[in-house]
Each structure stands twice: as C-alpha cells, then as structure tokens.
Design brief:
The protein has 2 domains: 41 residues, no CATH class; 169 residues, Vaccinia Virus protein VP39 (Rossmann fold, 3-Layer(aba) Sandwich). The protein contains 9 helices and 7 strands. Helix 6 packs parallel to helix 7. The structure holds S-adenosylmethionine.
C-alpha cells in the first residue's frame, strides 16, 4: 500500500481506499497485505494487450463522463451535448488531441467486438474483406489475424487511414491489411486493394458513415452490394 501511495502521489489513507475500491470492482485481487491485477485488469487494462480498453475509458473521461450528468437535457433537446451538429461533424478534426483519443477509443472498443463477430459468423468462405469506414482497423486486424485466408482493405478518410496504418504496423507485417484513403462512395475501394481486380466477397460498414448527399441507408447498401462477387455478403 505504501508503494501504491508513492506511485499515485497520495497519502496512505486514500491509497488504501482506492486499492480496496478497485478490488471490490474486480480490478485488483488482494493477496495477504499486497494487491495484484485481477485477470480482468490484465486482459483489458494493461496497455499493449490486444483487447486493451483503457483508451475508451480515457476518451469517456475526456468527453462524455460529465455530460452524462445532463442526460435529461440531451433526451429533451434531441441533440448531442458534446458537439454541435449544426457547426461540426462528429468526425471533426480541429482538435488533434481529441482526434487521437477518439480513434484510439474506437479501436479499443471495436477490437473485442470484432472478436465476438468472428465467433458469431463463419468467415470460412470469404477471402477478401472490404471494411468501409474501417477507422483504425480493429475489425480487419482482428479478423485477418484469426483467419489466415482473409485479406482486407480499409476504406476511410485520409487522416483516419493514417491511424490505421500505425495500427497495422503495430499488429505486424503478417497482417494483410491494405489502405484505401478516400470517401465512400466517391472513392472506389477495390482498385487500390492488393486483390484488385477481384472484388471484395465480404463488406463491413458502420451505421454512421457521413455521406454528403445523405442518401437513405438502403441505397448505400445497394452501392455496397454492387461491388460483391457471387456468394458475397455484407455486415
Ligand atoms: C463509428 S466509426 C467506426 C470505425 C470502425 N469501423 C470501427 O468499428 O472501429 C465510423 C468511421 O466511418 C468513417 N467515415 C465516415 N464517413 C465516411 C465516408 N464517407 N467514407 C469513408 N469513411 C467514412 C469515419 O472516419 C470513421 O472512422
């Protein structure tokens, strides 16, 4: 406990409270007079682990934790509290710190979701994944690492592809993820993918792509489906 107090730069009493509270939440385990990381904390809260979730917690602290106190206002006004949809895009790039935190947070949430997807859906028949709005690459990185037959390309805005590039480098050169910087549907993805001219046989797309002319979702999906080869699918 004295060691923790020194590390956290606090008195012994609050350090003791913090350790006990963390243990009661399941983040630490008590062994005699010492504490150590629980299995949960080892998997999700140690930076560098594949399913590290700390970036999402940091982002929530920075952006959404205090606004939750005004959730009634958000519901009654039918508007977000943390950004102005009249003036800004949700993917606004004017604050570099927020941009970096946002995509790290997205990655840390999506990687574990991608694992759940791989367990729920049989990708066995697929070889070429197009991830539209793929962000920092959590889905293609997780899926390609699990499924050796799969190659992927991410189509996302150029500044986001830069983040995906960092992540794919970090994930290792054996991970076959290529990048297509641009804006869907203007940018035609497959042309820059390694497997062009064959089209993708599976496409993933988030539900919040920003498309200039705001088409209805079904017509966006139609455009996606027109890229498929026979037997392809969309998620
Ligand atoms: C909610 S994030 C999802 C990211 C990623 N699929 C994940 O799960 O981690 C939505 C992504 O769509 C991208 N995006 C938005 N509009 C786009 C467009 N018109 N073309 C390509 N990407 C777009 C954003 O840059 C962002 O990375």
């Amino acid at each position: 406990m004295t060691e923790a107090a020194a590390e956290f730069r606090m008195d012994d009493r609050p350090a003791d409270l913090l350790l006990a509270a963390s243990a009661s939440l399941g983040l630490l385990e008590k062994a005699g007079a010492s504490y150590r990381n629980s299995e949960l904390a080892e998997q999700f809260l140690v930076e560098g682990r594949p399913y590290y979730f700390g970036a999402q917690i940091r982002y929530s602290d920075l952006r959404t934790y205090l606004p939750w106190h005004r959730v009634g206002e958000a519901l009654r006004s039918n508007r977000p509290l943390t950004w102005d949809p009249q003036q800004q895009s949700m993917f606004d790039t004017t604050n570099p710190k927020m941009v970096a935190e946002f995509w790290d947070a997205m990655f840390s949430t999506s990687r574990f979701t991608a694992r759940a997807l791989a367990e729920a859906y049989d990708f066995g028949a697929h070889r070429r994944l197009l991830d539209v709005g793929g962000g920092a690459g959590a889905f293609p990185i997780e899926l390609c690492q699990r499924l050796p037959q799969l190659q992927a390309t991410i189509l996302d805005l150029p500044h986001v592809c830069a983040r995906a590039e960092e992540r794919s480098t970090w994930a290792g050169s054996a991970t076959p993820v290529s990048l297509t910087p641009g804006s869907w549907p203007t940018t035609q993805p497959a042309r820059t993918a390694r497997w062009w001219p064959a089209g993708p046989d599976i496409t993933t797309e988030p539900n919040d792509l920003e498309i200039a002319e705001h088409p209805v979702r079904s017509s966006r999906l139609d455009r996606g489906f027109s890229l498929f080869t026979s037997g392809g699918g969309g998620i």
